[in-house]
Amino acid sequence: MRRKLSRRTFAKVAGGAALAASTELPSLGATLGTGNATQTTAAARGDAGRDFPRGFIWGTATASYQVEGAVKEDGRGPSIWDTFSHTPGKVVNNANGDVANDHYHLYKTDVQLMKALGVKAYRFSIAWPRVFPNGDGPANPKGLDFYNRLVDELLANGIQPFATLYHWDLPQSLQDRFGGWEGRDTSKAFGDYAGHVAARLSDRGKHIFTINEFGAFIEVGYRWGVHAPGLRLTGLRLNQTRHHAVLGHGLAVQAIRASAKPGTKVGIAENVTIPAPVFETPENIKAAETAMREMNAQYLTVIMEGKYTDWYLKSAGADAPKFTPEDLKIMSSPLDFVGINVYTARFVRADQSSPVGYVEVQHPKSFPHAPSFWLYVTPEALYWGPRHVAKLWGAKEIYITENGCSSSDEPAADGRVYDTDRVTYLRSYLTQLRRATAENVPVRGYFLWSLMDNFEWADGYTNRFGIHYVDYASQKRTPKLSADFYREVIARNAVL
Ligand code: PNW
């Protein structure tokens, strides 16, 4: 994972591709040992120019607290999200995940939804407090049993399990005793939990993600106070919390390597900040690459490079996190793949008067966005995100671990849900992803967020991200127009 393409090779191949027709370029696949062999069949189907590499893995994603419900069942301990959502005023309409989509009981129904779509993989998360009700200490075997049942059901239906170990439902006990990720003991407990799960699941679950989105749960939960645990840290305390979260990831990678069955692959699912050149001049492309490293300095950059950038440390000054060289080594433990959650891009342009060589170009108020205020519709994100990861860090396997959008969709008079905004969003984003795969950026799969509407954190049940509509009163799932679209995309392995 640490092998770098030479700057010149990549610039020639991918950098040039931004400016010229990709067919005229030497194949990056030759450099990386991948192939792009679907042209003939795609042409026969009339999908030439819109097709994805053969074997591309189409999937859907969810997360434990957002769909499972059953928060008191089979010995599950409380998580910070139970506490937070039951604190009045924290979540829209004071909603909580007590029942959510009742996936804990309806998982077989949900696997059939996926089977009907034709997905080849399901990205779900494991609730840490089901496995260790206090975060550490004695394990609760009944908790892991649920994931054993889920994994078996997936495999029986030809769907590969991709498990995420941490999608924000931290055991409350770790928050109470160690201040959650503020404390180094939480990082250590996370490593132990990761090893425990990997030892028991990796005979069937071959892909494991450690942590979902530092860039969201730390920033929104520990800095803005909008997500659990609802803190507003600044300065050194905030930087140290960020450091401990990434350290926890590294300890988990090492524990998984030590305890998992051979053939298990380990990665991350990070919502990298994606700088896109506001238009694609060589200067702006270079500026975007520099911005990619700096904007992600505390998270993906240190994971991939094994050090914090000079600019980050300099800007943080006395507030820079305290760490040892050993910490950095752990945090940058080599990964088998890099997962990125891609929703939105930030535009940058070259500016030599800036100390980092770039400036951000702000979106005007009128810039189109989804009902989620932060979700600006910028399809370019799905090209530049994976391309930066491949070029800057030589990643050999990349997954898009989330992509999707919220919509104000509601059933029409005929009972169907015509989410044309989501279809348009997905088509434009997938077109950009296809541009990346055509240039042999090694993207192996794509997980659409989300299989179904679910508990959207502080937005409660108000922002629907699903391609299946969920009537929470009856727990009925109905495929939306976007589900029909995605089924066709998967069947043809092409964007439509
Ligand atoms: C991701 N932002 O969250 C999460 O991984 C999912 O659990 C979530 O449901 C999905 O995206 C949709 O929101 C994000 O403010 C939350 O930029 C907020 C942001 C990004 C991602």
Shape: globular
Most strands sheet: 8 strands, parallel, barrel
Spatial extent as radius of gyration: 22 Å
Q: Strand share of the residues?
A: 5-15%
Task: Tally the helices.
Answer: 19
Q: Helix/strand/pairing class, anyone? A: alpha/beta
Question: How would you state the average pLDDT, rounded?
Answer: 92
N- to C-terminal distance: 32 Å
Question: What hetero molecules are bound to the protein chains?
Answer: 4-nitrophenyl beta-D-glucopyranoside
Overall helicity: 40-55%
Task: Tell me the total number of β-strands.
Answer: 13
| Uncertain runs | 1-39
Strand arrangement in the largest pleated sheet = 1-2-3-4-5-7-10-11
Briefly say what this structure is.
The chain has 496 residues and is α/β, with parallel strands linked by helices. The chain has helices at residues 7-17, 28-32, 39-45, 64-67, 80-85, 103-117, 128-131, 141-156, 172-178, 184-201, 214-223, 235-259, 282-295, 297-305, 310-316, 325-331, 381-393, 420-438, 481-492; strands at 57-61, 121-125, 160-166, 207-212, 265-270, 274-277, 337-341, 345-350, 358-361, 398-403, 443-449, 468-471, 476-479.
